[in-house]
């Protein structure tokens, strides 16, 4: 799992080095890219949420593994929101309210980093405390910038 995430992160970093118009051959590719990153992120957040809420047994090692993925993946979807990549469930407000979108994306990355620190603490209580702000950030961004 770590190798896959590391490879994906390396590819994303390489893609970020290219001009945004060169990153994706078609707007649909950008949409698929960002949706894929968000899907992977949501699956790992859901596992952490299940442990934090008691719906799944708490396993410190699994929590760390999932939090590592969330922290790394949280940096990826933003390249898929370049100008000319409108579509999918993204509202047009993303491209009109770039400052707010950027602020929420940065907050998500910071919350994901804090989640990883909490997971490494090895305490379900620390995990619970970090899940709240992350969930609030996700909700705030989706409420503002995502069509249902």
From TrEMBL:
InterPro entries the record matches: Cyt_c/b562, Cyt_c_II, Cyt_c_prime, Cyt_c_prime_subgr
Residues in the signal sequence: 1-17
Keywords: Electron transport, Heme, Iron, Metal-binding, Signal, Transport
Chain segments annotated as coiled-coil in the UniProt record: none
Name of the protein in its database record: Cytochrome c
């Amino acid at each position: 799992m770590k190798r896959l995430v590391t490879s994906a992160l390396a590819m994303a970093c390489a893609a970020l080095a290219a001009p945004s118009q060169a990153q994706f051959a078609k707007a649909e590719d950008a949409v698929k890219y960002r949706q894929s990153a968000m899907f992977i992120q949501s699956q790992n957040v859901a596992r952490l949420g299940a442990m934090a809420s008691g719906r799944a047994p708490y396993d410190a090692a699994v929590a760390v593994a999932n939090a590592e993925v969330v922290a790394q993946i949280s940096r990826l979807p933003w390249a898929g929101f370049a100008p000319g990549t409108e579509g999918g469930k993204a509202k047009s407000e993303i491209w009109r309210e770039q400052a707010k979108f950027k602020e929420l994306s940065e907050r998500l990355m910071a919350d994901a980093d804090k989640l990883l620190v909490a997971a490494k603490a090895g305490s379900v209580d620390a995990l619970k405390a970090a899940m709240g702000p992350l969930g609030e950030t996700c909700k705030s961004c989706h409420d503002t910038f995502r069509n249902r």
